[in-house]
Amino acid sequence: MKILFIVPYPLRSAAGQRFRFEQFLPSLDMKGIKYFISPFMTRAFYKIAFQRGHILTKLFYTFCAYVRRFQDFIKYWDVDIIYIYREAQPFRFIFFEWMWKKIFKKKILFDFDDAIYQLDPILRHQWLLNLIKKPSKVLKICSFSDIPIVGNRYLYEKIYPLNQNTRILQTVLDTDVFKPQLRKKKHGDPVCIGWSGSPTTTRHLKLLTFAFRKLKEKYGSSLHIKLIGDSSYQMNGIDIESISWNLDDELIELSNIDIGIMPLVNDDWSRGKCGFKALLYMSLGVPAVCSPVGVNSDIVVHGKNGYLAHTESDWFIYLEQLVCNELKRHRMGEEGRKTVVENYSIEKHTSTFLAIVESGSPTL
Are residues 102 and 36 in the same domain? Predict the structure, then answer.
């Protein structure tokens, strides 16, 4: 069996790819399954893709990306399975997915972990994006895929009526890699509230403006707020540290966090999320405070392995409790770690991934 992974981004660059399929690749090696990976973006393209400007360079890189996509038909004509993560290319049409299925007669496994059948609310006001993208194409791809793979039950209930072969594969972590780190914190160092995410998800941090302002007013320099993923992000009148995400420094930066946060606006887009931020903090033994949206309410047992904050006041109350009580942080962090190891570890879900892949084999 040979598998071609059709993906948007270069390897080890985007969290979705890393935790949806990249971390399972060693299990394919162990099974003797041969695979190839074809990203739409090169590393050079990915480096500037989400920056303003560089229009001509982006157009050139996009042209080259489409050339590579067409070359895939020739280069990988003999593969058995096409495993598509999110999309083969970012614009309106589904030409490549359709060709692989209808003309080349390949088995299609289509994997996604967000409600990408609609446009992210933060982008809906951009007329050009609305013109060139068509999120509903995801539903069409699901309808003719052999196995649509989704990250949670909310997405499953949306896709199952279109394709009864839909499967759930939860987003999980390698708990041998993501584990409590030895911290070099000294007595008297400030307590650190931390967030990790992409620039497009910083909109949710507005939910914490009230809590952050009150906490900083009350605790001053004994409280540090760190945001990982968007070095340009600022909050009006609130002293925060914003840094870019870097794979090489990921564990170092995360291990300096004492309390992890996952605020979410309660909308259809957010309900499709798979709780990855919460799982990431918890795997490191860091207590998580989350909005009770989507699977967060399944992952977090309020008051035991984290807190669920419904209102602005809740955010302040629960964060303050953790800021003031090191023992509570430690106990809640231990419970969170236990939750991830028992229910959301790669060890527990590798068999599910392999079963899905092998069920797509034309030889079975």
Answer: yes
**pTM score > 0.85 for this model?**
yes
For residue 45, which amino acid is it? F
| 245 in the same domain as 350 | no
| CATH code for the domain of 30 | 3.40.50.2000
Per-residue pLDDT of the chain in tens (364 residues, 90 and over written 9) = 999 999 999 999 888 899 999 999 999 999 999 999 999 999 999 999 888 889 999 999 999 999 999 999 999 999 999 999 999 999 999 999 999 999 999 999 999 999 999 877 666 666 666 678 888 999 999 999 999 999 999 999 999 999 999 999 999 999 999 999 766 667 778 999 999 998 888 989 999 999 999 999 999 999 999 999 988 899 988 999 999 988 888 998 998 999 999 999 999 989 999 999 999 999 999 999 999 999 999 999 999 999 999 999 999 999 999 999 999 999 999 999 999 999 999 999 999 999 999 987 665 4
Alpha-carbon gap, residue 180 to 281, rounded angstroms:
10
Instruction: Answer yes or no: are the C-beta atoms of 274 and 295 closer than 8 Å.
Output: yes
State how far the Cα of 70 lies from the Cα of 16, in Å rounded to an integer: 24
